[in-house]
Amino acid sequence: ETIPLEMHKVRIVQKLTLLPIEDRLKAMDDAGNNTFLLQNCDVFMDMLTDSGVNAMSDQQLAAMMIADDSYAGSATYTRLEAKLRELFGMHYILPTHQGRACENILAQTFVKPGTIVPMNYHFTTTKAHITLNGGVIEELVKKEGLEVTSDLPFKGDIDTEALEALARKEGADKIAFVRMEAGTNLIGGQPISLANLADVRRVCDKYGLILVFDASLLADNLYFMKEREDSCKDLSIREITRRVADLCDIIYFSARKLGCVRGGGICIRDEGLYKRMRGLVPLYEGFLTYGGMSVREIEALTVGLEETMDEDMINQGPQFIAYMVSELLKRGVPVITPAGGLGCHIDAMRFLDHIPQAEYRAGALASACYIASGVRGMERGTLSEQRNPDGTEVFSNMELLRLALPRRVFTRSQIDYAVDRIDWLYQNRKMIDGLVFVEEPEILRFFYGRLKPV
Ligand code: F0G
């Protein structure tokens, strides 16, 4: 077993408070048992997400000071554009305010009523944008990817035979684009392999389909390619990045994850595709040379992208996650294996097998975990799904409590604290009840819905 080692030192800190359990119970009650509605001042370890909360480096902060403020044509933007061209080898860039803004632009441009978007697996905002534009998604992750415990190195891989069958049946007219997601978020931050992406490219070439790559979680995925895929062992991270990019037509990303800042972007190989999307940027985001990001964020992003090419930087998330997963396994707590990126994923399906799935096992676990520990995680299960048009529930394949590990934020002793409290909760799991909605929003209900114990 490997002990994770911080390859950086701490130079700025933020004080944390650990409220007494009675206060945590009240805070959770006030938040309608939804961890999104907690106040951060009531949280000890915020493991809700790794989005926009990764620690920035001294180099990133320094770069923010030289940002060139200008609505149009700032030197700051030119530096970002040059870095993206260098890393991905795509000439055309559209900046956005975050990842879902890219999804809005892609969906508005390519998704028409009745079209299909095949993908390895959906992400919440991706699916919402595609559905909003009248499209449907087709999830074709290999069925082994949905097995909660396994030792498969690339559980995010798509079933290319199923993809080819769909392409043959529906053809290029009905398929808006094929989407591959790095570090597949909703199935536990599980990576895709370079070999699988190459197979997808072959199918896309054969049937004339556009390949869109969601690179939000690329950093973890690059690390896993280097660690787990023979063909990548002798390549640098920069070379692997380029091999990935060379297979895609369009790459988009949330810079809240990739680059550890805020913002996002779409990189496009072909001028024609670029021109079809370009007009939406000034409409929804901001002018073409800032796209809703501040110039300071853009400077820090350029540096953050370069730092992503450093193996000692991108190994931090996966190594700390692997440690947490192995400590929980030792104590018998059900977790997703193998350890992936993004965070540690607790299997609420098994953890709370006394609660019916209709009573939101993962949501109930997220609420109980906060009360027991002050650790805030995120529900990734049925609550994060949208109901069918007829009002029936869409039961998620997996019921997960995601405990994200924002990069370079938590120390090993904090992880040990979380493990200890989760172990205690597992020993006492029968006292956890299911949840029922008190207030249920129609779109993305998990963000601000309120629930109470059954
Ligand atoms: N794609 C993936 C794979 C994501 O994980 C996210 C965000 C997005 C797109 C949307 O990007 O938030 O910048 O608009 N994931 C966050 C999370 C919200 O907590 O996992 P965004």
UniProtKB/TrEMBL annotation:
InterPro entries: ArAA_b-elim_lyase/Thr_aldolase, Beta-eliminating_lyase, PyrdxlP-dep_Trfase, PyrdxlP-dep_Trfase_major, PyrdxlP-dep_Trfase_small. It comes from the Bacteria. Its cofactor is pyridoxal 5'-phosphate. Keywords: Lyase, Pyridoxal phosphate. The modification N6-(pyridoxal phosphate)lysine is found at residue 257. SUPFAM superfamilies: PLP-dependent transferases. Gene3D superfamilies: Aspartate Aminotransferase, domain 1, Type I PLP-dependent aspartate aminotransferase-like (Major domain). GO terms for biological process: aromatic amino acid metabolic process. One of its GO terms (molecular function) is carbon-carbon lyase activity. Residues 46-418 form the Aromatic amino acid beta-eliminating lyase/threonine aldolase domain. Homotetramer. Belongs to the beta-eliminating lyase family. This is Tryptophanase. It comes from Rhodomicrobium udaipurense. The lineage of its organism: Bacteria, Pseudomonadati, Pseudomonadota, Alphaproteobacteria, Hyphomicrobiales.
